[in-house]
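Attaching the record inline, Q. Sequence:
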Amino acid sequence: LPGFDRAAMDGFAVRSEETKGARPHAPVFLERFEPVRTGMPVPAQYDAVVMLEDSILRGGILETTAQLHPFKNVSRIGEDIAAGEKIFSRGHTLRPPDLSLLSALAIEQVEVYQRPKVAIIPTGGELLDIGSRPLQPGEAYEINSIMARLYAQKWGASVHKTDIIPDDEDLIREAIAANQKADLIIIIGGTSVGEKDYVPRILAEMGELLVHGVRLQPGKPTAIGFVAEKPVVCLPGYPVAMLFDLYLFVRPALQRIGNRCDPQPKVRAALTRKIPSRPGYLSLVRVVLQGEQAEPIMISGAGILSSVARADGFVLVSEAKEGLEAGETVDVFIFE
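Structure, as predicted:
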């Protein structure tokens, strides 16, 4: 690509050797030339294109003030893509410019990986569909599935969300069993140690519970396992904890299932103040970027949804550290 020598400018196809010595105050006069427009083939007998602004056509004679070297203003055969050149590697995510390039090469079909199928199961007897009716004390609208669904879609998945499942063991089992065609099942809520937090036990009974409880702050009550060889990630009901679990567990899972390797965007920034942390726990702290500085916000409070809506990203504090000092330069992982 291109499949022929083509004009890169509007002007006249000429022989470069015949423009030798041309300059603004000493033009040369050419009898052999051919008008061309951008993108047109350059006739084989010519090897350069003189631009319109460097030439004047006077009664069949072309006057030019530009000395040209061979193939000046000419896109050579294969200049864009050479024959046999690899266009994209396996695992490349196709973007709009990539599709244009494939079309230019007359490639109408390519083999792609199927989007991972994700089932999202929100649980909780206190939850209502948004706007279904005014909330009573102790009730809440089910909002976590919105964030989980949109992130899963952003990370390449097709998503099915079930109805809200009450805190009922049999109904939760039925929901898990009914979504076995999914490549990944996400269950929201019911992962703590309360009387109605059934999900980890159900996961152990139906398949294999790999872990219940991680050294993560926020996000400790996370559970992970398999049912019929399908991965199941059980996320806490607190929105901040759930968001961080999406980044730490769901995103990598979808990258692997979908054969993707998209790096998570991050920047370097200096902390404006100290971040305390709990030794032995990986801590995720929300921050707002201010130029090359990162301002920590809401260091605690896994249920404060506005803190993530206002944040630009998060900072990881290693379990081996007792916080980070003001002025320390850190990686800030940007919320996508």
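The helical segments are 96-104, 144-154, 169-178, 199-206, 239-257, 305-310. The chain has a mean pLDDT of 91.

More tomorrow.
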